[in-house]
């Protein structure tokens, strides 16, 4: 965790010990990484890249005042400090551009290097962003995504879209009734357990009455990020698909970091962090984050806040979530046991991943019906 000024958060998607303090991003950590041959890699979210592009405008001066205007000064000062200390790092805006409309993604990606030159940074941007003709969304829909994007986003997208369907069709249900209905539908229609999305649904289905004090603010922010369209719940399939896709893009950033931290890239070990201007994502990561328990597999398990002491909804929904999560954990542990014995389930895993876009298409079809 780290905060640069009032607007930019540095988020680590997992912790070794879920009960330990969250990791801190500072120059000392980067120096240790460099000494160990680990590359520190910074991912950027869409909000940050939009502000960076604004600062690139010819009408803006190459000054700290411009950086301060767009909430970038403390962050740029941190990066300048890396350069002064000769600490290397990677900067990856590719995923942020992938979420933007194509014409904006192309324009902004072409101007990125000018930001470094204008404000005194020594970086080489992600070489993938040079493929500007392929970056960005043609339209904001699941069907318009490239096949690789569909496979990567399908699980989160399906889970979030199903959540929105239950909201629409379960108006007469109690909060715990909605959550139990969601878990039943999730298990029968999606099957693959992903605790992050199930934890999000707990907050979204809770009511103000279930959330005393600061917890209601948490509930409201999670709901706003994952279940709101223009300050209301989405009303039709198109709106629901857009909201679910936006949420899936957010969660994809955490998944990318977990995969990269576990596997590295082409033999290079990585320490990945997300820079975001969205405080809701930082808060969500405090509520629900990956835990490796020393296995070396980032995000192998997921730690959540149960809030069981708050009231009956949180106790009951926590028990329901834990029951389903344990089923997923047993499968993970069984896969680890097989790997230790040299038994590979890689073909089975690949087949499940290949099927995920079809699962998403079935949930989209469901959004045009009532469940």
Q: Which short descriptors sum up this protein?
A:
57% helix, 2 domains, alpha/beta, 3-stranded mixed sheet, 5-stranded mixed sheet, 371 residues
Shape annotation: globular
Strand order across the largest sheet: 1-2-6-4-5
Low-confidence segments, given as residue ranges, are none
Q: Count the E strands.
A: 8
Q: How many discrete structural domains?
A: 2
Roughly what is the average pLDDT, rounded to an integer?
88
User: Which class of secondary structure composition applies to the elements?
Assistant: alpha/beta
Beta content: 5-15%
String of helices and strands:
EEEHEHHHEHHHHHHHEHEEHH
Number of helices: 14
Q: How is the biggest beta sheet arranged?
A: 5 strands, mixed
Straight-line N-to-C gap: 41 Å
Provide the gyration radius in Å.
21 Å
Helix content: 55-70%
Characterise this structure.
The protein has 371 residues and is of the alpha/beta class. A 5-stranded mixed sheet has the order 1-2-6-4-5. Strands 3-7-8 form a 3-stranded mixed sheet. β1 and β2 (8-11) form a beta hairpin. The chain folds into 2 domains: 2-134, no CATH class; 142-259 and 295-367, no CATH class. Helix content is 57%, strand content 9%. It starts with a strand and ends with a helix.
Summarize this structure briefly.
57% of the residues lie in helices and 9% in strands. The longest helix has 29 residues.
